[in-house]
Amino acid sequence: MIRDMTCEMNGGRRPGVRRTAYGLAFTLICGMCSTAPVSAGTSTPGSPPNPAAPVLFTLEARSSASHSNLRGNWIRRTFDLKVQVRGEGTEATTIIGIGRSGAGLKLLTPVARGPYVLQPGKIVTFKLGYEITKCSDVQEGEWSVPIHVRSDDGDTIVYSPLRLFNVGTRGPVDLPWQTALANQVC
């Protein structure tokens, strides 16, 4: 495949050894340049988090509340949770927001919440409120929480898994956080 690419770059001519080396170097450099720069632990909003990236935050929710209110013929289902964000990096991080809406879930609290400067090893708590727009649409499986971070290079989104704890037993919940909380009111 590299040989075919090198031939295309040279107008269909079969390159010599020297031209092959230049072609390979060109292909390698172009491949490196075409990759969008991504900070450690970040990804675009539609893509999953980078599993090989170092952990910048640990998220835990140790308290939550769910509500189901009948309004005429319509039931409004909501839940709130307090998310503790612990800085796991080696430098202070400026958090400018947290959370997102998704399938079956509408984020009620604003994404922009800050800025907060989080020192390594310290914790900041955010309250996230969600309305369940359709119970059957709620995301199944791990659904990481986006943390909007500001740095000298600009704003970035870091995705971190959220670990939900059972209030009664104080142990971790086996289900993904959004599934466990939606199940309480659906």
TrEMBL record:
This is Uncharacterized protein.
